[in-house]
Write a sequence for this structure.
């Protein structure tokens, strides 16, 4: 995966949108407050599809206490003081105040660990996009670490709101780089994700699948562009995909082979092949071999007079004479009538 750009921040005019504001979901919803059993309802909803290591991870991070807004600011201040102390020591070539640095590192660890469940809340929305939940969480954690390093508490945003931007960026970049058989640009992955979110919201509002025109109106793009995005978002499907409960059939078994001959044509082709072989058997061995090479009757590749001449160690003119003689023999009624029925 391409590394996250450490200099890249949310756009200067960035304001939290519906996809960034997660505080209510994380902090107010009872399912997140019930920490005695890990993630409570959230874990219960996912458990049927989780491996044991993932389930254990979710329960472990669910025991970490959440932070209040005031605690987040305090931790950010300690981190800032620790960084400033380290920079001052490096610049002035003096010994740093170890307490400030250690408190800053501890604050960074606490802010990170207290928000690991935030990564899960974002990552689970990307399930089914080509990466398993554990990989999505790992990539999201990279974004969380970057958010902790870049967080500016003086701007007034809740940390979880700011961190969501970085987590989503890390996950969508990973999906673009790793998840898809055919790689698509990161910005297109983000556009696809936006289309999916709008489609789901419209489905809830309308009680039916939204049309391309309805999605286009919400995204402020053309309906044709929506259809293009949907087409790009479709993943290739392997012909080896198991079909049925027994997994003894594959998708490719049910697809029509347009290159295959129809049964009647296949039978006719086989009969013609047998008749051609029968007619060629009436020629001398050299004549038969020359025609087979010149017309590619065995392997489908026609040879030139010069190539056949090298095969028999004679001149190309001699091969032309042998070929002409063999074709005259085939035109004799005793031989040609066997093949006439196949010329229609």
């Amino acid at each position: 995966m391409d590394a996250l750009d450490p200099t890249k921040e949310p756009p200067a005019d960035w304001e939290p949108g519906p996809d960034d504001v997660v505080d209510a979901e994380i902090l107010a919803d009872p399912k997140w407050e019930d920490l005695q059993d890990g993630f409570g309802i959230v874990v219960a909803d996912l458990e049927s599809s989780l491996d044991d290591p993932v389930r254990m991870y979710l329960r472990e991070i669910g025991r970490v206490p959440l932070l209040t807004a005031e605690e987040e600011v305090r931790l950010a201040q300690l981190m800032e003081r620790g960084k400033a102390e380290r920079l001052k020591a490096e610049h002035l070539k003096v010994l740093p105040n170890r307490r400030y640095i250690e408190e800053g590192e501890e604050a960074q660890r606490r802010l990170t660990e207290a928000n690991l469940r935030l990564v899960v809340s974002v990552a689970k929305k990307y399930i089914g996009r080509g990466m398993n939940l554990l990989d999505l969480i790992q990539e999201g954690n990279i974004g969380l670490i970057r958010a902790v390093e870049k967080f500016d508490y003086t701007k007034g945003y809740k940390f979880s709101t700011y961190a969501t931007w970085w987590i989503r960026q890390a996950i969508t970049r990973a999906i673009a780089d790793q998840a898809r058989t055919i790689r698509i640009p990161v910005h297109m992955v983000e556009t696809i994700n936006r289309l999916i979110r709008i489609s789901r919201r419209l489905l809830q509002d309308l009680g039916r699948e939204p049309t391309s025109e309805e999605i286009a109106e919400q995204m402020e793009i053309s309906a044709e562009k929506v259809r293009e995005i949907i087409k790009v978002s479709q993943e290739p499907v392997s012909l080896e995909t198991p079909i049925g409960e027994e997994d003894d059939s594959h998708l490719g078994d049910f697809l029509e082979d347009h290159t295959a001959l129809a049964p009647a044509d296949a039978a006719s082709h086989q009969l013609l092949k047998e008749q051609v072989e029968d007619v060629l058997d009436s020629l001398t061995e050299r004549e038969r071999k020359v025609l087979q090479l010149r017309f590619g009757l065995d392997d489908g590749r026609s040879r030139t007079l010069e190539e056949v001449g090298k095969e028999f160690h004679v001149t190309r003119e001699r091969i032309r004479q042998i070929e002409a003689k063999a074709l005259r023999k085939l035109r004799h009624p005793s031989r040609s009538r066997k093949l006439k029925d196949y010329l229609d």
